[in-house]
TrEMBL record:
<dbReference type="InterPro" id="IPR009057">
    <property type="entry name" value="Homeodomain-like_sf"/>
</dbReference>
<dbReference type="GO" id="GO:0045892">
    <property type="term" value="P:negative regulation of DNA-templated transcription"/>
</dbReference>
<protein>
    <submittedName>
        <fullName>Transcriptional regulator, TetR family</fullName>
    </submittedName>
</protein>
<dbReference type="Pfam" id="PF08362">
    <property type="entry name" value="TetR_C_3"/>
</dbReference>
<dbReference type="InterPro" id="IPR050109">
    <property type="entry name" value="HTH-type_TetR-like_transc_reg"/>
</dbReference>
<feature type="DNA-binding region" description="H-T-H motif">
    <location>
        <begin position="30"/>
        <end position="49"/>
    </location>
</feature>
<dbReference type="InterPro" id="IPR013573">
    <property type="entry name" value="Tscrpt_reg_YcdC_C"/>
</dbReference>
<keyword id="KW-0238">DNA-binding</keyword>
<dbReference type="InterPro" id="IPR001647">
    <property type="entry name" value="HTH_TetR"/>
</dbReference>
<dbReference type="InterPro" id="IPR036271">
    <property type="entry name" value="Tet_transcr_reg_TetR-rel_C_sf"/>
</dbReference>
<dbReference type="GO" id="GO:0003677">
    <property type="term" value="F:DNA binding"/>
</dbReference>
<dbReference type="Pfam" id="PF00440">
    <property type="entry name" value="TetR_N"/>
</dbReference>
<feature type="domain" description="HTH tetR-type">
    <location>
        <begin position="7"/>
        <end position="67"/>
    </location>
</feature>
Length: 203
């Protein structure tokens, strides 16, 4: 029972930290505000994390882990059209459900990734390279157009789908809608599959 309660408190703390970090960034965020939003005393934060930086890195790492989970479906033995369509859908779903997480990651990258540079250059880059090889193998099998650059293709998949979260204010001002609107969400999936895949799949 105590373990379950501790896990719930940790989850509550991470959610509160995400709320604060995505608005103020690492420098502007305060542990006092995070403690207030998580409904716990500031000193209790140090039971879970040694300092603000450790908490910040954990929030960002959890975002990256969720993104990597969705990339698991990109397997060389699967049908590229089906898998890439599902991947686009999953990335847009993440943008719909976790706009704050996407914005926080974008903010960190815009600032030069000072706190997750090691993670990006290490495990994330290795995982990225493995998925680049999947695209390259699909090309070798004649399933993906030869003139597509695998690394840039994956980066384009990321940037386009994440823009719906990172720039949701822009989407709402210009179109009057965001992914929270069911019909707009479906249109976004259809449009991105058309835009990103039809030029990439071999015909």
């Amino acid at each position: 029972m105590e373990l379950k309660k501790s896990t719930q408190k940790r989850h509550q703390l991470l959610n509160a930290a995400l709320d604060v970090f995505c608005v103020y960034g690492f420098t502007g965020a305060s542990l006092d505000e995070i403690a207030k939003r998580s409904d716990m005393h500031k000193s209790n934060i140090f039971y879970y994390f040694s300092n603000k930086e450790a908490l910040y890195i954990e929030v960002l790492t959890s975002v990256l882990q969720k993104w990597l989970e969705s990339m698991q479906m990109l397997d060389v033995d699967e049908n590229p059209e089906e898998m890439l369509t599902q991947y686009i859908e999953s990335k847009l779903e993440f943008s719909r459900l976790n706009p704050k997480a996407s914005k926080l990651f974008a903010l960190e990258i815009i600032q030069g990734a000072p706190y997750i540079q090691t993670i990006l250059k290490g495990s994330i880059k290795k995982y990225f390279k493995r998925k680049v090889k999947v695209i390259a193998e699909w090309q070798a099998q004649g399933k993906i157009a030869k003139d597509i650059e695998p690394e840039l293709f994956i980066m384009n998949l990321w940037s386009v789908t994440q823009s719906y979260a990172d720039f949701d204010t822009q989407f709402e001002v210009l179109t009057g809608k965001t992914l929270r609107n069911r019909s707009f969400n479906q249109a976004a999936i259809k449009n991105n599959v058309q835009l990103l895949l039809h030029g990439a799949l071999a015909r």
